[in-house]
Amino acid sequence: VSAATSPARPDGDAVTALSLLISGVLFWGGVGAVLTWWLGPLVYAGAGVTLGGVLGVVAVCVRYGGRQPAPESSADPGDLMNTSEHPLMQSAPRFSTSSHQEEQP
Amino acid sequence: VTAVAAGKGFEGPGPRDFVFSPLFGHGSFFTVPILIVILMTIVIGAFFYLATRRATIVPGKLQYTGEAVYGFVRNSIAADAIGPGYLKFVPYLATLFTFLFALNISGIIPFLQFPVTSKFAFPLFLAIISCVLFNAVGIKRQGWGGYFGGMMFPSGVPWWVYILLSPIEFLSTVIIRPITLTLRLQLNMFAGHLVLALCAVGGGYMLQASGALPYLSWIGFLGAIVLTFFEGFIQFLQAYIFTLLSALYIGGVLVDQH
After folding, report:
1. Nearest CA of chain A to the CA of B235: how many Å?
2. Apex B56 CA angle, B51 and B61, nearest 5
3. A23 contacts B161? CB cut-off 8 A
């Protein structure tokens, strides 16, 4: 299997998104906990955890929200008209009549 | 069994079964898990040494097995997860996979019967190595500013949002990733070993009990046998997942440079 031609490259988006969600709650929850320990009211810890949860979702949206889904290849194996996407044609030489015409003096 | 003899109720396995006293001397760090790690390291080293000692074009059984393990990591993990430039990471990933698999599978090997990776420190140490590696690769490829800047300051976001999001991005990549890697493996091995031990101990308890329980003890032993095979599959799967995620993180920092 060649990496360059591997069609299905898995990605770590799911685990990265999970890490972001956990990080949000941990960091801002931790900030809230420190404020609670320092100032007293428990509301700081609760607000920190809530804010961290929301910001974790925002971080996931910022990182992955604008992505376009990968275009799917032709599902019809009989679609031989689309020769450029056919596996056997991937390594075939490409001919262009227009370029030949342009090269004419 | 001893509980039955002493007239006590059933005492199932618990976290105390994962605490070992030193094998030699008082206060020594040399416990059963350490012994298993040393043993497995010797076994893996000997296996790959013998498999590659006299490499031939037509491989023998041992060479074929060694090449199959290495080829599995190269083709099914590194090439797919990292992409172009994956070859230089294959030795690390193959070492990681075989080492993890050996430490996991020790949980169902007779006379060892303890998955070393159910102790928190072992997977944590391996996860830290993976974490240092993929961060070092990212810094080497993109520079300190480029790597941490790209990680902590995603484009298309107002500047004041960075104050809220940048710590999360940093914490996620540098701290949480190795911890989630560690916990996923450690808790799977911990829970699997507990369930397996519960079936075996429960079967033994029922065998020694009075009434109809001895006739039902086969349920516990059958469960232990079935779960042993299932645990073997889980142990392979967890070694695969740990290695795959390490490769994905490496591939992620290589892709981010574009």
Report:
1. 20
2. 45
3. no
Q: Are B228 and B108 in contact (CB under 8 A)?
A: yes
CB contact set of A19 (below 8 Å; sequence gap of 6+): B172, B173, B176, B177, B180
DSSP secondary structure code for residue B250 in this structure: H
Instruction: Compute the distance between CA of residue A63 and CA of residue B83 in angstroms, rounded to an integer.
Output: 21
Rounded CA-CA distance B17/B22 in Å is 14
3-state secondary structure B14-35: CHHHHCCCCCCCCCCCCCHHHH
Nearest partner of A21 among B247, B168, B216, judged by Cα: B168
* Helix or strand (DSSP H, E) at B72: helix B61-72
The answer to whether B66 and B55 are in contact (CB under 8 A) is no
Nearest C-alpha neighbor of B203 from the set B32, B57, B7, B13: B13
Question: What is the pLDDT at residue B33?
Answer: 93
Contact B197, B220 (CB under 8 A): no
CB atoms within 10 A of CB A25: 19
Prediction pTM value: 0.80
| Residues with Cβ within 8 Å of residue B221, at least 6 apart in sequence | B199, B200, B203
Q: CB distance A19–B172 less than 8 Å? A: yes
Interface touch A62/B156, C-beta < 8 Å: yes
- Please give the Cα distance from B173 to B135 (Å, whole number): 9
Residue among B95, B254, B250, B100 at smallest CA distance from B184: B100
End-to-end CA distance of chain A: 45
Nearest chain B alpha carbon to A9? B80
Task: Give the pLDDT confidence of B75-122 residue by residue, as tens digits.
Answer: 999 998 998 889 999 999 999 999 999 999 999 999 899 999 999 999
* Interface contact A18, partner B, CB < 8 A: yes
C-alpha distance from A19 to closest chain B C-alpha (Å): 5
